[in-house]
Amino acid sequence: MKKYILPVLLVFLFFRGYCQKASERLNNKMQGYSTNDTLKIRRFYNLAQEQNNHDFKKVKDFLHQSYALAKSAQAETWLPELEMNLGRVCANLSMPDSALYYFNRSLDGFEKQNNQKSIAHVYSKIRWVYNYLGDFEKALVYAFKALEIYQKLNDTVGIASSNSDISVIFYSQQKFEDAIKYAEKAYEIQKKNRRLEDLAYTAQALGDAWLQLGNYPKALEYQNEGLTLRRRLASQIDIALSLNSRANVYKYQKRYKEALEDYRESLDIARKASFTSLVLSCLGNIGHVYNLTENYAAALPYHLENQRLIDQTQQLDKAVENYQLLADAYAGLTKYDSAYYYQRLTTTTSQELLNEQNTLQMSKLKTQFETKQKEDKILLQEKQLAEERLKLWALGFFLIVAIIAGILLFRLIRILRKRNEEKEFLIKEIHHRVRNNLQVLSSLLHLQSRYIKDEAALDAVKEGQNRVDAMGLIHQKLYMGDNLAAVDMSDYLQHLGESLLDSFGLGDTHRVIIQYQLQPIHLDVDSAIPLGLIVNELVTNSLKYAFPHNRSGIVEIALWEETTKKLCLQITDNGVGKSNALQFSSGTSFGLNLVKILSKKLKGKHKIIEAEFGYGTLLEFENYKSV
Which of 101, 374, 475, 476 is the right S-S partner for 431, CB 3.0 to 4.6 Å? Predict the structure, then answer.
């Protein structure tokens, strides 16, 4: 069953912290482009990252959307990173030609940027494709190219990774002693670096190699270590890979019950993630265990399902072993005609592979598959047509009823419309009066501030005036807008920012400017008012403390909605930094206490954004209502 171990081993390297590093590199490049482009590209890219280790097909779809947007925006610095991600997911979906295409494009982009570390990353990925295709000579060339760059950069993480890559190539060539030699080099470095994800990968590779050399206790020790680390890291795909490898050891030890438990858990995860290579491996291994225990009736469904997947993916090298397993199962069930048929397929297919003349057979399998798909599609279309006719009759009846109901309700609608217009007028009038009252209060505070000499008291009055203006602006937007129940937060926050600049005398100086990254979000009044007051306080703090001694700078207000139904607000500046700014969590001023109280109302969580220059706060709200 070595063919069910080798293909799965080849994909381990794609799950060793790569996604997080890629995300960090991409975010660092997302400067200098338009707000809308940045938000859209980042949104689809983040959606892809969320699906990593869950569903590769969804990852591929989201990355394609992000990539198309980046190309449309001519964001050349972003493209290599996205192309590397696309190549990686194509590799995981057993699409080596597409993977190689994207990796080579990515390599060209990183070479133009002279990004040596990223070039080494791409070399390791190209190495994977050639290893998967059986071109071990080219695979070794790219692996050693990557190792050479990492050694020049003194990057111990990369050096360990390259040694792991070389180990995989020797394993694929069934040079297990050499595979162990390079894997142990990686293992020692990773032990010192305490990189658990990489260590788990290498422990699993060592376990696979020792298994092939017949040292089952040592193989099981390494597999248990790798699985334990991956369960701690909670990476489902990696857990599935470790389970499959440990089950291989159990199978060789004839501990069939434990092997089946691991194979089934691994299969469940692989199916959910659309991880075709691992699904094939688990199906074949489960069927093989049942063959070994002479439970051929239980084995047969797994072999047949495996064969369907092999036919769909046209992986003829896996077909040979599965044909043999099918022949054994049918023979055990005394169905000798079927056993003979698959035994003959085993022989003929092996000869085709050895002579490299399998093109015709693969084309035939593809044609059969596509013909079956077309027949199924025709049957489905006929069924849909019958359903559409039934729907058409039902729609006709519904239209008649709707016309009658419409005539009866017409007069009622006119009455309700008139009443609604009267209510809208009254609501607008209420908002108008509230706005006027708040404006009067703001004017009184302004007049009072002229007679205050104490600086602390004067600041408090001005801050109070800004808070009143922030609330008044909400009511102004409501009675002047078309929607009485919603506040356009993008328009509101831009006006609020301009108002704050004017209140600090910065409106015409352009010494400090405010930039906006705002999604088109509409909130109800109960959500908009506390959010506006929070923005007022945080921007006020930046304008007061971040740019002393006439220092120039930028304050950025960003508001967006995550797919996880969270509203995110981020206020950042490039001022003097954290040492000269008030701490959010330890602030004692009224304004920061007000931010805490208002955040709790919206079920907000915050974190401080630390950077080399400047200071920022990110808040995520769960209790808000968009309209």
Answer: 475
512, containing H or E segment: strand 512-518
Q: pTM for the whole thing?
A: 0.47
CA atoms lying within 13 Å on the CB side of residue 202: 28
Helix (H, G, I), strand (E, B) or coil at 369: helix
Average pLDDT of 315-320?
A: 76
Residues linked to residue 516 through DSSP beta bridges, in sequence order: 557
C-alpha 118/C-alpha 144 separation (Å) is 15
- Angstrom distance (rounded) from CA 539 to CA 282: 56
- For range 213-230, the mean pLDDT: 92
**pLDDT computed for residue 361 by the predictor:** 42
Lowest-confidence region among 32-41, 92-101, 486-495: 32-41
Within 13 Å, how many C-alpha atoms sit on residue 512's CB side? 27
Q: Can you give 120-153 as a three-state secondary structure string?
A: HHHHHHHHHHHHHCCCHHHHHHHHHHHHHHHHHH
C-alpha distances in Å from residue 112, one per residue of 27, 76, 109, 447? 19, 10, 5, 61
Residue 23 pLDDT: 46
Q: What are phi and psi of 559, to 5 degrees?
A: -140, 125
- Which pLDDT band, with edges at 50, 70 and 90, does 405 fall under? confident
Mind giving me the DSSP string for 576-614?
Answer: S-GGGS--TTT--SHHHHHHHHHHHHTTEEEEEEE-SS-
Backbone φ and ψ of 560, nearest 5°: -150, 165
> For a pLDDT cut of 90, what percent of the chain falls above it?
22
Token pair 């599609």: residue: 377
Rounded to an integer, the average pLDDT of 273-301 is 91
Measured CA to CA, the distance from residue 44 to residue 525 in angstroms comes to: 30
